[in-house]
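Colleagues,

For the teaching module next term, I've prepared a clean inverse folding example: a structure given as tokens, and then the sequence designed for it. I'd like students to try predicting residues themselves before seeing the answer, so please don't circulate the second half yet.
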């Protein structure tokens, strides 16, 4: 969590315990106060947690696929869904005063703690990539589309398939609102069919042959090569887009500096 001390963007954080709340308050104290909004929240306030009993019931079936924690721990599953609750809440409460909004998992930039990756002057910024399509929602691509485009929702759940990573989500505000509605609608449909897993399997299901016709919003994927940003293996797969956004900010700053000089 220390890396949030270095993130210069405005941060809206929803926190469920006093220790984490106080820690975030302390590590963000070096930034202008308007760049940090900390909201103490009870899980019961989030609609995703109303699905806990149903998800737990599904996971309790002896023959249900067991991928820990995705299809074993119902609490983990609903927490993954709840990111879309708080994204919606942040916008509804008026805390997002930018055109774009991103969800950022709490440990996404943990690699920056390594000395060779630590940001210059212990600060970094995230900005939209140069080729970003405002009409789409962006994710890091984990599995290539060609090998996932024909998978059914049950294929995603049964085999724990991942097309895009859920740890970093980027979109224009009006786009993410539409995406959230579609996401929630998809998850409820899956529950009706006795299926549940994490957000990554839900998103894959949204764009399955059975459901893609119902999707108004398209996905823009970003795929990085091994070693890019000095990241390797699953780190570069799952963290790609976040580091692309970090690089976009750095390149824009460098270009501005050159123009001024």
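(Answer key — instructors only)
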């Amino acid at each position: 969590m220390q890396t949030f001390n270095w993130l210069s963007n405005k941060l809206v954080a929803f926190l469920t315990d006093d220790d984490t709340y106080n820690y975030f308050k302390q590590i963000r104290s070096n930034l202008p106060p308007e760049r940090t909004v900390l909201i103490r929240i009870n899980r019961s306030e989030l609609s995703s947690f109303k699905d806990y009993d149903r998800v737990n019931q599904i996971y309790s079936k002896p023959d249900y696929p067991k991928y820990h924690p995705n299809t074993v721990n119902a609490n983990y599953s609903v927490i993954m869904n709840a990111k879309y609750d708080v994204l919606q809440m942040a916008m509804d409460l008026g805390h997002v005063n930018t055109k774009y909004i991103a969800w950022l998992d709490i440990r996404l930039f943990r690699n920056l703690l390594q000395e060779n990756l630590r940001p210059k002057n212990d600060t970094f910024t995230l900005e939209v990539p140069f080729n970003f399509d405002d009409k789409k929602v962006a994710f890091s691509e984990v599995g290539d589309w060609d090998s996932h485009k024909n998978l059914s929702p049950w294929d995603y759940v049964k085999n724990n398939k991942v097309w895009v990573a859920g740890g970093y989500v980027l979109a224009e505000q009006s786009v993410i609102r539409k995406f959230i509605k579609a996401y929630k609608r998809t998850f409820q449909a899956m529950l009706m069919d006795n299926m549940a897993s994490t957000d990554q399997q839900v998103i894959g299901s949204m764009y399955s042959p059975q459901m893609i016709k119902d999707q108004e919003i398209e996905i823009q994927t970003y795929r990085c090569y091994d070693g890019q940003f000095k990241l390797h293996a699953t780190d570069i797969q799952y963290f790609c887009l976040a580091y692309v956004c970090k690089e976009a900010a750095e390149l824009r700053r460098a270009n501005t500096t050159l123009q001024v000089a």
